[in-house]
Design brief:
By secondary structure, the chain is mainly beta. Helices cover 0% and strands 50% of the residues. The chain has no helices and eleven strands. The strands form two sheets. Strands 2, 4, 5, 6, 9, 10 and 11 form a seven-stranded mixed β-sheet that branches. The termini are far apart.
Length: 123
């Protein structure tokens, strides 16, 4: 299993950005797919997760209403659309896959990780 995250960069506060996570060696319908982020000097934190069915999502409170997780199964992509970005969203964003139950916010529950993509939001 390999996950490749992309789409990060520099954006002004209030702007939008879309992250992509391309998966290989796995079938998305068998995995819960999630995004985490890690800001400098902080622990990795949960951002959003998508049920393997594609039918349910869960977000951390700070991004609700601004971020949307989705997938394009035909292209083996998991997407994170980020709108109304704030400087506190600045972090390295990681996609992760879990062959297990839905809804875990604990990094240790995820067996597979992408390499991370840096998102910087300027004020």
């Amino acid at each position: 299993v390999q996950l490749q995250a992309s789409g990060g960069g520099l954006v002004q506060a209030g702007g939008s950005m879309r992250l992509s996570c391309e998966g290989s060696g796995l079938t998305f319908s068998r995995f819960s797919m999630s995004w985490f982020r890690q800001a400098p000097a902080k622990e990795r934190e949960f951002v959003a997760t998508l049920h393997r069915s594609g039918g349910s999502t869960f977000y951390t409170d700070s991004v609700k209403g601004r971020f949307t997780i989705s997938r394009d199964s035909a292209k083996n992509l998991v997407l994170l659309q980020m709108n109304s970005l704030k400087p506190e969203d600045t972090a390295v964003y990681y996609c992760a896959a879990r062959n297990g139950g839905f809804g875990s916010t604990t990094p240790g529950d995820y067996a597979y990780w992408g390499q991370g993509t840096l998102v910087t939001v300027s004020s």
